[in-house]
Amino acid sequence: QTVVTQEASLSVSPGGTVTLTCGLSSGSVSTSYYPSWYQQTPGQAPRTLIYNTNTRSSGVPDRFSGSILGNKAALTITGAQANDESDYYCALYMGSGISVFGGGTKLTVV
Amino acid sequence: QVQLQESGPGLVKPSETLSLTCTVSGGSISSSSYYWGWVRQPPGKGLEWVGTVYYNGNTYYNPSLKSRVTVSIDTSKNQFSLKLSSVTAADTAVFYCARHWSGSVFDPWGPGTLVTVSS
Fold it and tell me: Given this model, what pLDDT does residue B59 score?
């Protein structure tokens, strides 16, 4: 079974830029996987940031952007702020009605 | 705007069936534009898609859970439901319901409900 891979943890300095990636254990991620990204803080439901690779959800600041980088989907955060410190999850559509989440990336702003 | 709310027992005994309901408000669950899904998150772990239902009753399940999961829809009540049979402690999780669309998009989400499997 295909596994969706994410970095376990990343860190970024306040005001800095960081890129989180979402890959496949076998194969490349393309727009055909309709990648989406979610932000989750402890005790809260996930918040949708990006869908269909690069469309920002309503109310999401343009500091967050989505793309395909090489063979992975990517979420880039520019001008990182303290409140960006969260867990981030990607999800991919595998076809036949099946969606798979990545294992999540814990982002620290230090 | 559309809002979702999970409801159901917070404690289930091992080997029994977990049952949850998601009530949708602010929009019709009968819309052909959307699907309705369940996602779970064990304590301290990541998100896992469980299953999804369409307004016409078509269902899609996580292959790893397919033998134990049933998702159904009741358009008259604007609700959809999850049943997970033969539960073990490994099924202890926060369960979220969400509107599911455009492939892998889950939005909006319900606040989630913790279900603990314990005797």
Answer: 97
